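Supplementary Methods S3. Complex input for the magnesium ion-bound model.
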Amino acid sequence: MSETLEYVASAARPDAPPAILLDKVNKWFGAMHVLRDVSLNVAVGERVVVCGPSGSGKSTTIRCINRLETHQEGRIVVDGIELSDDIRALDAIRREVGMVFQSFNLFPHLTILENCTLAPIWVRRMPKREAEELAMEYLTRVRIPEQAKKYPGQLSGGQQQRVAIARALCMKPKIMLFDEPTSALDPEMIKEVLDTMVGLAETGMTMICVTHEMGFARQVADRVVFMDRGEIVEMGTPAQVFENPQTDRLKLFLSQILRGH
Amino acid sequence: MSETLEYVASAARPDAPPAILLDKVNKWFGAMHVLRDVSLNVAVGERVVVCGPSGSGKSTTIRCINRLETHQEGRIVVDGIELSDDIRALDAIRREVGMVFQSFNLFPHLTILENCTLAPIWVRRMPKREAEELAMEYLTRVRIPEQAKKYPGQLSGGQQQRVAIARALCMKPKIMLFDEPTSALDPEMIKEVLDTMVGLAETGMTMICVTHEMGFARQVADRVVFMDRGEIVEMGTPAQVFENPQTDRLKLFLSQILRGH
Amino acid sequence: QQAPAAAANTFDAVKSRGQLVCGVNTGLAGFAQPDSQGVWRGFDVEYCRAVATAIFGDPNKVRYVPTTAQNRFTALQSGEVDVMARNTTWTLSRDTSLGLDFPAVNFYDGQGFMVKTALGVKSAKELEGATICVQPGTTTEQNLTDWARSNRIKFTPVVIERLEELVSAYVAGRCDAYTTDVSGLAATRSAQPKPADHLILPEVISKEPLALGVRQGDARFADVVRWTHFLLLSAEEFGITQANVDKLGNDPRPEVQRIIGKNGGLGPMLGLADDWAVKVVKAIGNYGEVFDRHLKPIGIQRGPNAQWNQGGLQFSPPFR
Amino acid sequence: MSQTTIDPRLMRAPPKRKLRLSWADERIRGVVWQVLVVGIVGTIVWWLWSNTVHNLEVRKIATGFGFLTREAGLPVAESVIEYSPTDTYLRALTVGLLNTLKVAVVGIVLSTILGTVIGIARLSRNWLVAKLSAIYVEVIRDLPLLLQLLFWYTILQSLPGPRQAMQPVPGVFLSNRGLKLPWLDWQDAHSLALLALLLGAVVTWFYRRQALAKRILDGQPRRIWPVALGAMGALPVLVWAALGAPWTADWPELRGFNFRGGVTVSPEFFALLLGLVLYTAGFIAEIVRAGILAVPQGQWEAAQALGLHPGQVLRQIVLPQALRVIIPPMTSQYLNITKNSSLAVAIGYQDIVSIANTTLNQTGQAIEGIAIIMLVYLTISLSISLFMNWYNARIALVER
Amino acid sequence: MSDVTLETAAAKVPEAAPRSPPASQIGLLAWLRTNLFSSWLNSAVTLLIAYLVVRWTIGFVEWGIVNAVWSVPDNQTQACRDLKGIGACWAVITEKHRFILFGTYPYEEHWRPALCVLLFVGLYTVSAMRRFWRKELALVWVATLTAIGVLMWGGILGLPYVPQERWGGLVITLILATFGLALAFPLAVLVALGRRSRLPAIKALCVLYVELIRGVPLISLLFMASVMFPLFLPEGMNIDKLLRAQIAIILFAGAYLAEVVRGGLQALPKGQYEAAEALGLSYWQKTGFIILPQALRLVIPPLVNTFIGFFKDTSLVLIIGIFDLLTAGKTAIIEPAWQGFGVEVYLTVGAIYFVFCFAMSKYSQSLEAELNRHRNR
Ligand SMILES: Nc1ncnc2c1ncn2[C@@H]1O[C@H](COP(=O)(O)OP(=O)(O)OP(=O)(O)O)[C@@H](O)[C@H]1O
Ligand SMILES: Nc1ncnc2c1ncn2[C@@H]1O[C@H](COP(=O)(O)OP(=O)(O)OP(=O)(O)O)[C@@H](O)[C@H]1O
Ligand SMILES: [Mg+2]
Ligand SMILES: [Mg+2]
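Predicted complex, serialized as structure tokens:
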């Protein structure tokens, strides 16, 4: 399996230094081994889609990347900074990595605009006026500038998720992580959000996205990673992975999600 | 309009005494007139689907039938017993009428099996063993016998609604009332529940069902009743009502629900 | 503020502060209690004013700190108050183990009983089986049990902390008898709509010398307090009153001359002004006047608090 | 099934984390912060402690619990156990503790009952009943408990004196000395009969359970009352008769100043109990109301539609669900009753606080006295909490 | 869009004229029938309660108004005593109301505590209005409390100095309650955060504090503050009695409020913490901007409940000889002339407590409704 990994990783823009490097990362929850020797190399500007059955460690992997979870073995290097117990390194990385959650996690007591400006003002120490201009710019990009004064509770799920994306973008991150951004949405709203993400992908942003939206993966992903039981089982271009699965597990998985639709 | 009523009512098995008779029933909530001269004759074994816009009094009508609401004018006779303030009559009727609610209303502190055996044991004074056998039989009929020991909170919505149906059946009612049993469910679960109801309809049970599922209505209903603003506006076979609506209101309503799908 | 090491200097501390801090009862009719205007009045309060006058020549340079039965001693120990004029019984253990001194007994009291006349009881010995109202946490409670034991009397206590509630319990008939210091009984009795309905029984079951208190080891300040009390006594003995104290310049009696500081000497020995006594008597009056002003109206007789030459216990050493 | 496919070599245990000595390390920071905070708190405590020791020494205040074995000499009006002023402080304090427990336990039971009734009354369909319960709750909650206690005590004192005592039933007297009830001249026979009654109650209870279980199993109803009558009526009477049927009642009668004989409910106890129960019931009523309202209307309807009777709906469906919402805040109220009983000082009921106050006044052992009060209340509070938490866990809802 | 078509189309449909319900369904009669006389048991209860209410009301009016004595010439209470309880002696309030309200504060200076009470009420009112919920409100608080301190103490601006021992009555109650809660609140927030901390020692300390303080009655803490506190300090050092009581109340209220706040913290979804962390906010930024604003909003009703409890509990300082409202009321009737009129005084004092607590409880209900409306759109 490792040959495949090497091959694919090196295939993706081998010249640039990697934006994210996971090297034999292992993680346990208590005694439960949830990540096993996960190695992944994401080049700058690369767009990676992660899929796999429930409980396979997809969320855990990307949460390790901005250290919402700590890994116990192996190395994670993000944007040239190695994740360790060092708090300064952590701060630096969180500034460079934006994250969008399945359940949006907007701050309900702040307006949309305040949601977007909070971190730039307090973390990046940006002047308020500037932060607001930036926020409006990104809100326009996700096509909801007119909602800026409303509260999250007044928006539909799709709109909320787009705000969440704008909020992350306002920190001008180099890397964006998405954890099943559409799975809490109604079918009609999924499209809104996917469109936004496609637009984002076109700007050349480095992205890792956990999703089961095949169409999206095919359209934007440079690479698809399939995880199962805490391991990366297969990876490759969407075409390789979807049309020509190598392992039984992936075949089974694909048959399931295709049947589900 | 009343000619139509007479005609259809008599068309349905005119020989048997009616299972349910509503005769010019009127009901007010405060000063609000929510049922206006509702007359309906349901023969034994007949399957009636009630539809109509929101707030038209569908729920109120069937809730009057097992006296979760009291009507103020007119007569309601169920299985030969007239509804009045008499508590014994009420007990007798509730024993004969099973009801399934939109929001399932399972008892969350009891297991599935206990949910089903509670009423047989305490109301019908059935021995526990017997009640459990009966419950397992009906749980098998709704295809979830393996969930018997779980609690409602551990089941999906569709499974919960099927438990609710089994629970009502365990009282061996002569009549079943359904109040929008599928409208709180996800599309995939709707099918599970509708299948169960179709199966039930095939046993010849007298049923009144409030639903907007056209497919279901076409498949099982002997008669479709259309209500609006507290009145029965039209009724007839599914074919009559759906293909050949007489009134503007029904036409408008049909165009809406068809557009919605 | 003051530590016990500095306790020897309460006098200086008071002087430099410009105010005397006086611990009083939170409310005891006749002895200490704020009136409708919130001004403290009563027999004990006059002692605070007298000491303040002695030191500053001004009876108003006092701050009153209401103290409860529980916190009065710590208030004094910790320096929260300079002097305690708060119906406190002088006992050996308090004198020794609490770090206090009792410079002067300003009121001789004893514990007695009061009953309703209608009960027909004439002597405390007839109280077998009675219900008796008593305040907790003071010597009263122990006196009562001691007395009951020595007289083989069984009684049911009703133990209520605040005096008002205790009195109202007695008045309402919750108890047959009410026991506290005789002065308190008299005060309660006179406050009743019909005092004649209540009878103070003849037995006095304990000695209750109610004394002023200061911190131990502060002889100088104790002297000031002690001699202020004696001044009030001597003034009464020699007929010096609020009204005539100004006009005694030519009084022939040498003792009177010494008291009013005509020839100087005695005041400065206490660290006070020569005319301290005149000012004190002018402002407060003599012992008898103070007594008549506050205690007589509520029905307390002089009894043991009469001058020694009137058959009482109040005796002032000579001013010389 | 998934477990079998996992390569056993991969079933590794997590490694231990190494600690790096750097301020940037979160764990180092954590340790430093903790050491700092604990150090500061520790220093303050140590400082206060050493001050106290020093002050006690300077002021020659003796410490230690030796005073507990000294003779108390303090009179106690009512006591669950034998007590006379010649007993020790320890015994006096025990009497106080038992008095506290007495009022707390009775108060908890009664206020739970009253509070439940009022809480349900607030949901009554009778407008007057509902409104009055609401007014009751508002008024009771917004007035200081102390004021209420004084109020009830004053009211009870305005009852007639012992000589004019009311006699609602012969042998029962109500006066400002309290409620006097006749009592048996207690003998062994009575103790044994009581024991038999208890035994009978237990037997009946078990029988009832059995009968119900059997009835659920086979649907046959069984009579319970014959067994109940036999076990709780005949058995004690038999025991009592076998032991010679002693029957001399101790009737209260006016002798001298007061009633002698019989048992007494004192006005102090009664006022305290009344005040506590009425006050706490106001709070419990709100808790119960919220609990019942928290059970969705659909549950009532579903149960009714199944044909259950209102009583069965309440017992089988609503209460079990409401209890989960009710129990945690109820625990706080039980704790409050226990602690509020310390206001007894104000109206002359001699609970632990009252007696400990007197003790520390007489002996000057302030620290020990207060330590005893706090220890006693802490123990009671923690026991109540533990019990209620256990009960709460037992009835917790099974979710996913 | 589809709504529009439905509306217009539906409007064209002729509506059948609604019949009004039968007479038994509406109007006063129907209301009485459904609400008061729906069954014979209900009717019986209604009649019984109505009878009792009417009787008590009449009794109270007779006692409190018809037969009452409103004032007597200087302390001659014979007129009151002659009533023998059939009428209230409001003269005691007429005579003593200033003492009850202001205690032993110098009589001529009573305008100062009176002004303070008004300031307190104004402060509460302003704080209660949501449109003033801004940062400046903290300044208003500081300014008002300072002004109150200046007014009460005096000593500057030509106001004569009034030592703390002379303060009393309602002002003391308001001071103890306001300062107590204003200071206990931040303490409670810290303790609640500490109790959820990952650092075991800090967590243990907070748990210890909360459980120890909550487990004992307030009066034992007050007692400790009053009797034993001087022993804890070095010799010669002392703290004002009011301050000691205040500290005891703060510690006690802090433990209770901490549990309330903790409830709010626990109710907050984990996602909020994670989202804030992922944005790179530091612990204190996260706590201050995201966690606390939401958590506190969640627990406003229990918070106000606790406030009400402590407002009343300040009356317990009578145990240590501070003249709060209730103690002042009790002291007012020590004077022999006025002994025996406790009921009138207690009623008055109770009414004052009631006004404040009732206002708080009504306010919390409306606030709860308002905030909830805000939450769901
Ligand atoms: N905080 C936690 N404590 C213990 N176990 C956890 C925790 N979070 C996740 N796990 C476990 O770790 C494993 C991997 O979880 P993870 O959330 O990464 O899966 P996933 O691939 O994202 O699944 P899903 O598609 O359901 O989101 C699962 O078995 C899960 O139960
Ligand atoms: N308990 C009640 N009190 C007052 N009005 C009520 C009550 N229940 C229902 N109504 C009113 O009665 C009318 C009929 O209600 P009903 O629930 O029967 O409508 P429905 O046809 O079932 O509508 P939906 O499709 O929304 O369930 C509505 O206008 C509703 O607002
Ligand atoms: Mg996941
Ligand atoms: Mg409906």
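The first helix of chain E runs from residue 2 to 12. The pocket of magnesium ion (ligand 3) is lined by residues A 58-59, 179-180 (CB under 6 Å).
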